[in-house]
Amino acid sequence: MTRILFITSNRLGDAVLSTGLLGHLIDRHPQARLTIACGPLPAPLFRAVPGLERLIPMAKQPYARHWWRLWLACVGTRWDMVVDLRNSAVGRLVLAGTRAFHRKAARPMHKVEEIGAVLGLSPPPAPRLWIDARAEAEADALLPPDRAPFLAIGPTANWLSKEWPVERFARLAQRLTGPDGPLPGARVAVLAAGAERVRALPLLAALGVRAIDLTGRTDPLAAAACLRRAALYVGNDSGLMHIAAAVGVPTVGLFGPGFPETYGPWGASARAVTGSVPREELLRRVGLDPNASGLMDGVSEDRVAEVAQHLLGAANKF
Asked: Domain 3-119 sits in which CATH superfamily?
């Protein structure tokens, strides 16, 4: 029996972007038994992976004790393959037939390409998620039963400086779901992590009865099940943006001081929209204050609406 140890990120977005490489391993070794180590936040994304033998959430501990505990959990197994996207000592200090480690790219490339290069894959495999019946049941309970098309919005991010103003999201929602919009009369699902819910409340209030409140109510896999049913996702640079793109929803990611060439949403139906202020200026302001406000003001509502309508039009052709 082939056993593979796959060590991936503790961050949600990076973990999502690594799923294409994981899917490639599953396709190449369909009978393999997989052990996946990752951070606690993205861990639910991997619970339905085919061939999963063990899922090890690694909560950070003082003095890097989380790595010591991972080594203790893995050292007793003779692995046929270790794929270590953290480039850790654990990947080197367990018995293994073959090993592959992530290394920072010598030239600028998207993170999906960088991860694919771990196994020499070009073009790289696209991220994918495996959604189980539990997540689908949670989506059934949270979403309207009529299965009508809806707009999904992710108005928050892990940094305040990466958040587009909430009032712009509200106006965009009205524009896209109003009588003359591409989704007339559609409801609007609002998603945010539990700790970020308070920053999404003004958007929920602006949407009123048309809002579907998914803030702080789902784990990442249930969020994926909900997003897979959306007609379109618009949101800031965040893990939710990558989840939306990975499940194939037309996705518009909004970037201010971020790096869309490295972390933009991946896929044929995904686009990044940037602002008019030079990134060097935005990064300078972030350096002065990591939670500086106004850094997303240069992202045009007109441009976001234009890209959203283009993606919706393309999706409706099929």
From this structure: Glycogen Phosphorylase B; (3.40.50.2000)
